Amino acid sequence: ISAILFGGRRARTVPLVYQSFDWAHGVFLGATMASETTAAQTGAVGVLRRDPMAMLPFCGYNMADYWGHWLKVGRQASKPPAIFQVNWFRTDENGRFIWPGFGENLRVLRWVREQVSGRSDGRETPIGILPTADALGAREVGLSEHAVDTLLAVDRGEWVHEVEDQAAWLDKFGDRLPKEIRAQHTALLNRLSPVTA
Predict the structure, then answer these.
(1) What is the pLDDT of residues 30-78, one digit of tens each?
(2) What is the DSSP secondary-structure string of the chain?
């Protein structure tokens, strides 16, 4: 296994795709993954619901212990898989999906493959490594520059709110929360903090 992809459904905040900095950061991405509900799920639309690694309904024991097992696997692996998060559901100001999906998703998977093989360019952001528009071939899909910018945006204000919501989620696990997950959360907050001279 060269790569693991986690995916949530988010209209805003989360870019189309990004790579974790390392294994522990990737486990943190999975641990804090969230999706907005649809009418089919709860009757309420757009409510943010944390579903770590899309496993919450299926995990038969404490999720904090589950994350601890993931972290242990990474420590034991000589070359753990790269971890990515995808979000096919980013919308524009009119509520329409920006990314066309379907066969064009192969462009994202191609970037993932090239990242793990060291043949692609990514740009480092506070949340992880994002592709460039050229690396995705996004303009070949017919997307405007504004649409591409929105798909790959990292809005610090939105992410500060995201970090606050993550903190409330992680606090639910008390002392069982692995220290590495708390450290990743703190590191994300620090990367989002404005640089002062």
Answers:
(1) 999 999 987 555 556 678 999 999 898 898 999 999 999 999 999 999 9
(2) --EEEEE---SSSS-SEEE-SSHHHHHHHHHT-EEE--HHHHS-SS-EEE-GGG-TTT--S-HHHHHHHHHHHHHH-SSPPEEEEE-TT-B-TTS-BSS--GGGHHHHHHHHHHHHTT-S-EEE-SS-EEE-HHHHTGGGGT--HHHHHHHT---HHHHHHHHHHHHHHHHTTGGGS-HHHHHHHHHHHHHHSPP--
